[in-house]
């Protein structure tokens, strides 16, 4: 009982992850707190990447970043954070190729690494649920469907990509409410970027997502599309930097930042 | 007549400025279009500065930035932009000291310079006026009063500062409307950061601003404080980079971006 109670705080979960007592997905963990995508790059790529995120805010909203190359913590994000151990599972890339998946990056750590945390749709899905909207991927217990589009991001240095979007089907009235709610959360992708005809943004078959799983679209529903945090991963794959670390999909950093705290208004 | 009509477009004004036919303040020019603060820094400071702006968005909202060191234009900002000539007046700083004020920077230009455009309160003042609110500094034809506060910005690399705020007195009902309206404009400082007691944010005498001019506060009004774009200038003065170029106060870049286009919702 004591044990379970303590796991209701982000700090307790991070400690469990740090000790490698848990190495699984963080989906659904500690409702109410921001979970973040991780990108770690050598300092020489840091300006280009930060600029790519800055000019493509909807797809790549920066929640926080380390302030000194080699720093393993980030101000105002998580108590006693050690970015090398506090995420369940990491991916190591060399020249754009996935080399290995590991449960800590103590051996891979270098003094020139800069850490970026990028907002994740878990936060706005929670706000939509609180407003009584159904999130189909949650109802169907699936990973949200994600699609490559023909919407070009702005390029910055070596980083370029078309936008990746996630899709949630909704009745028009619910879509309108979702647009209102998500407008309050620019740091986790903000309002949708499109609804309706998938072909209008270059999606050939709505039933064959490029990432995640297909979900049911019922009669009277329209697909609603949000800019997706997989976009920076595509930009990194395109740029193929000689070294990069990310989280493994679904294995996020659980921060001490409350979802309610990041609303714009 | 032909001449005046043509000056209703940002491009026409920029051309007049490029030709040095006009070297004055841009206040009130081409209503409806975003005017931007200018910061130009050598590439080696660019990451720290972009990160400082990113973690202090309210005070330092980045509107756009050049994508390649030495580039004299910026994508999606202004047709045929040449950042070396299209601003009426520039300030050259060396080691944090103002060296000279010039009307173009063709001689000072270097291949390692990166340009940042930062949002300016002209945009939200226009939205407030359209909503029928009185802006006291405009009514009294004064530069808005600005104050150093004790609100610390987050530091990034060499850049650190306390927040500078601008102040507009309002009746509470108008302040509430202003909070709603400005929430829609996170890229030009967003919602206010404080209202009421100046001492609560470290302002000793509301009648003695650190920058700009004092304005009348009438009975029944409260001072309302917004994060101010002078903050990055204080951060630059504190950091004293060996080289830096800014616009001269009030002598802004007039972009082709419409104020309405930068609203978050």
TrEMBL record, chains A, B:
Transmembrane segment boundaries: none
Return any one Pfam family short name.
D-Glu_cyclase
Signal peptide positions on this chain: none
Q: Which family does it belong to?
A: Belongs to the D-glutamate cyclase family.
Could you tell me the superkingdom of the organism this chain comes from? Bacteria
Q: Which Gene3D superfamilies match?
A: PSTPO5379-like, PSTPO5379-like domain
Q: What is this protein called?
A: Putative hydro-lyase HHO47_01725
E.C. number(s) listed in UniProt = 4.2.1.-
Give the enzyme class. lyase
Q: Which InterPro entries match?
A: D-Glu_cyclase, Putative_hydro-lyase, UPF0317
- What are the recorded GO MF terms, alphabetically? lyase activity
Keywords attached to this entry: Lyase
